[in-house]
Amino acid sequence: MTTEPGVTPHAGAPRARTGWWAALAGVVAAGAGLALAELLAAFVDPASSPVLAGGAAVVDAVPGWLKDLAVAWFGTADKAVLLGTMGVVLAAGAALAGWLELRRPPAGAVLLGAVGVLAAVVAAARPAAGVLWAVPSLVGVGVGVLLLRRLVRELRPRDRTPLVGLWSGSQDAPDRRTFLLLAGLTAAGAVVALGASRAVSAGSRAVDAVRRAIRLPAAAKAAPAVPAGAELGIDGLDPYVTPNESFYRIDTALRVPQVAPDDWSLTVTGLVDEPFTITWDDLLALPLEEHFVTLACVSNQVGGDLIGNALWLGHPVRELLARARPRAGADMVLSRSTDGFTAGTPLAVLQEADRACLLAVGMNGEPLPAEHGFPARLVVPGLYGYVSATKWVTELKVTRFADEQGYWTPRGWSALGPVKLSSRIDVPRPGDDLAAGRVTLAGVAWAQHTGIAGVEVRVDDGAWVAADLADTVGPDTWRQWRLDWDAPPGDHLVAVRATDTDGVVQVEALAPPAPDGATGWHTIELTIT
Ligand SMILES: Nc1nc2c(c(=O)[nH]1)N[C@H]1C(S)=C(S)[C@@H](COP(=O)(O)O)O[C@H]1N2
Ligand SMILES: [Mo]
């Protein structure tokens, strides 16, 4: 039992219960305020909601090592974990505000108000924000504070004068029924507001319907056919072409940006003689090319799965740049997304005649899925996504590395991000039940734009043995590999390393993803019985 100044001990048990009711009042009032803010945000801009703006600010503020840890622990569930954590913290804070409002008025109202004002400031400071972005948080918290005061008043024995005229205050002794009625009405109002906000944000469903109706033009230059020998078809081995549903997703967007093609345009600007803007229809009228390219995330750990291979359909970025005519001295293209994300890519890489850098609209035969950048994104063979693969891209600014930085560079990641030569063991998985005798080892290896020439496997302290390499369409994609191993009983360490077409052998020294990509030979422990 807690005792507070001014509380008579014999009244302790009921007062303690009143504390819980006050905590409930805090949660209900704050929840109603948040629901109202969500509803207003649906009109202003979905990203102006205190939850999404606050979460986005947390994502931006998180140091690189913590981002790595989150991706390592939760993979692509990291956003759900973040939102869940925020929910728990907010609920606990709201309960505390309710309790404080009962015991130390107006401390609870002040706490709630301060958090709301902070949310408003954070929302208004988002990269894409307008002045209106503060409104949902401010109105939401204002109403939340009034509700909190009104609800908690119902829990007090004295002080029965109405604070606000939302409901006529009862003049009788404290009555839990009035409190429950008001709290119930508030909660019901919150549910209605949330439902309405969902209905308003049905805009995202509208964009999805537009996307489904799109028939992309055929490629003027089709991709080479995938050789039959590119797919080893081994159970547990990542397929040569990654289906869209299982393609890894990495971005800073808590809510997938919903960009309708009719509202989309791409501007090529900066240090160019001929800046210009193209619309969606302009883009589809340009000659499109298809290329298989393996995309990789710089945050991928040794043995990790933040990598996938897809068939991309798009227009060469090189052609767009040629039309804009970059000026002497420019060495970077800063690509910008609707959500404020930017990537800095070397201009020279994007201009290479034999590198398929695409302004992509298609992925594996369909329009880009929303979470992979619909309606348009960049794909650059050989560079990590954070310096090249901008999704929902709307601007290409020709500039200089000395003048501008991509999103991740000031956050501790290298300005340049060439993909590092790497390989992975997919089969068997550590922990699999394996009997002595023939065991098939298999995995993938990648060195985008250089190409894989060989993969070797080593068991314990044995010699490196060359694995069989699957076919590939070219140097821009990963290659599968396999090796049959006559496994003796016991515990064994199996390691893999790749060699690229320049004869370079994969780096053995372990390095973490930051600042420019992990290195080290993927090694797994297998128990053979
Ligand atoms: N708009 C936007 N584009 C982005 C990012 C982002 O955070 N926002 N992340 C980049 C990173 S770090 C990677 S690895 C790739 C991942 O692309 P995918 O999600 O389609 O696999 O997208 C890139 N493009
Ligand atoms: Mo990434």
From TrEMBL:
UniProtKB keywords: Membrane, Transmembrane, Transmembrane helix
Domain Oxidoreductase molybdopterin-binding, first and last residues per copy: 254-408
Keyword tRNA processing: no
Top-level taxon: Bacteria
A Pfam family annotated for this UniProt entry: Oxidored_molyb
Transmembrane segments: 20-44, 80-100, 107-125, 131-148, 178-196
Cross-referenced InterPro entries: Ig_E-set, OxRdtase_Mopterin-bd_dom, OxRdtase_Mopterin-bd_sf
UniProt keyword annotation of Oxidoreductase present: no
Coiled-coil positions: none
SUPFAM superfamilies (UniProt xref): E set domains, Oxidoreductase molybdopterin-binding domain
Family matches, as PANTHER family: SULFITE OXIDASE, MITOCHONDRIAL, SULFITE REDUCTASE
Protein name, per record: Molybdopterin-dependent oxidoreductase
Lineage: Bacteria, Bacillati, Actinomycetota, Actinomycetes, Micrococcales
